[in-house]
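Renewal narrative, Specific Aim 1. Our central claim is that a sequence can be written position by position from structural information alone. The example that follows is taken directly from our test logs and has not been curated for this report. It begins with the structure tokens describing the chain, in the order in which they were read.
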């Protein structure tokens, strides 16, 4: 997206000169001649950067006073100060207040462009650093080789460059935000901000303020910029949009359609250019039927729908995910990486993972720190957390040793084969062909063996013993 730069100078020819230099580089500009015009322009939409003259004739505030107010209300807004009568003391004072840099008139076009480029890049890096701190090292990649994940990747590649709104559905913890961030990163807005708002964690009375911002006096002494305005030129993620109150949904419809809104407590129209991506772990069609979600909002958000599969739907990705999380966790904690034994990995693949990828990551973090045994030895199935160990197929834990030793060979072999094949079929999500290939049997022979052992499948691909 093209940057949007506000030029504040009392001389019209200087404003025109700077605008011409920037416009030639494809940069959009706006102009202001005094403090009131400058604040009005910032109020209409926060710019990417401000070029601000120190001496403004006929203005109620000079450049340094304007800078102080901008830094108070928009701490992350980059500002370059210019002056034809500057000195070192003035430059130092401006930088102390918060200006990115200071440039004296007359200046060369290439110096101005270099400074603008560096200021915007510094602001972008600062914003990304803040996002990373908030996310505490969250993933920005989609891990896995399953067909389900590959379909999601293909959808991302198709929709990312288009600018269309996207509705991402899927269970909690499956990776919907990762998909949203990948869409942003591969879009033409990648250089702009990515701003997320979790509708599920926000009180209804606060949600509208967080979305649209507030004027001074509504929620504190100064104006607050909402997420819609923060995301100008980039992407806004509305996480768990089904939790948004109906009244707010109506206002979102208008903002999506017109890209215009008003801050809470104000009447000034704020124009933005924002791509909206929404996520939901609920069936929005069912929410519409129950009167809890607006149909017109659904159709505006769901221009391109993408469904993220649950972890249980892509069990073959669990080994690569588990090893990836182990590597990341070890790097973060300074502990040595632990390997997974085949029995432990099979148990992880057999578990249903109600918390999906997020739960798997937490389990791997726990295993790195809490799993018993020599850290140089592989993690075994009997050291897995209780919630997984409770449903782990018996053969993997081998706690039926005493029972088997009390049986004749034929019956003991049947117990072992039943538990072994049950574990393997469950491991591969009920896929008989893949199980047969892994255990070294013909598919038809495996079917007969399972039937003879009393192992049958359910509608959801799970196995049970009669």
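The sequence written for that structure reads:
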């Amino acid at each position: 997206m093209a940057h949007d730069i506000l030029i504040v100078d009392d001389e019209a020819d200087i404003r025109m000169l700077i605008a011409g230099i920037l416009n030639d580089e494809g940069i959009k500009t706006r102009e202001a001649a005094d403090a009131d015009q400058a604040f009005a322009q910032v109020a209409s939409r926060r710019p990417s950067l401000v070029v601000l003259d120190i001496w403004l004739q006929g203005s109620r505030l000079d450049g340094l006073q304007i800078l102080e107010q901008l830094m108070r209300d928009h701490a992350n807004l980059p500002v370059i100060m210019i002056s034809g009568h500057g000195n070192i003391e003035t430059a130092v004072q401006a930088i102390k207040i918060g200006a990115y840099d200071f440039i004296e008139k007359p200046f060369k076009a290439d110096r101005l462009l270099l400074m603008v480029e560096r200021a915007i890049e510094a602001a972008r890096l600062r914003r990304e650093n803040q996002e990373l701190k908030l996310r505490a090292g969250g993933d920005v990649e989609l891990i896995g080789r399953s067909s389900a994940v590959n379909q999601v990747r293909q959808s991302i590649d198709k929709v990312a460059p288009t600018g269309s709104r996207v509705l991402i559905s899927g269970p909690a913890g499956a990776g919907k935000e990762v998909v949203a961030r990948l869409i942003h990163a591969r879009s033409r807005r990648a250089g702009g901000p990515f701003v997320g708002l979790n509708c599920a964690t926000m009180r209804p009375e606060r949600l509208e303020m967080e979305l649209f911002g507030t004027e001074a006096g509504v929620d504190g002494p100064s104006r607050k910029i909402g997420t819609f305005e923060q995301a100008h030129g980039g992407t806004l993620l509305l996480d768990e949009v089904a939790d948004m109150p109906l009244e707010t949904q109506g206002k979102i419809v208008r903002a999506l359609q017109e890209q215009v809104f008003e801050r809470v407590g104000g009447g000034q129209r704020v124009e933005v250019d924002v791509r909206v991506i929404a996520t939901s772990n609920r069936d929005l069609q069912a929410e519409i039927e129950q009167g809890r979600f607006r149909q017109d909002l659904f159709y505006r958000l769901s221009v391109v729908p993408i469904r993220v599969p649950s972890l249980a739907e892509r069990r073959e990705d669990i080994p690569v995910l588990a090893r990836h999380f182990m590597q990341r966790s070890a790097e973060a904690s300074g502990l040595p990486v632990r390997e997974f034994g085949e029995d432990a990995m099979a148990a992880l693949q057999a578990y249903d993972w109600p918390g999906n990828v997020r739960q798997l990551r937490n389990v791997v973090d726990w295993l790195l720190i809490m799993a018993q045994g020599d850290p140089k030895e592989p993690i075994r199935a009997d050291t897995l957390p209780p919630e997984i160990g409770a449903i782990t197929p018996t053969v993997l834990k081998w706690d039926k040793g005493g029972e088997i030793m009390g049986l004749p060979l034929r019956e003991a072999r049947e117990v072992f084969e039943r538990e072994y094949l049950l574990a393997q079929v469950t491991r591969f999500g009920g896929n008989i062909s893949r199980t047969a290939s892994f255990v070294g049997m013909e598919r038809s022979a495996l079917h007969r063996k399972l039937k003879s052992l009393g192992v049958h499948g359910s509608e959801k691909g799970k196995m049970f013993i009669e």
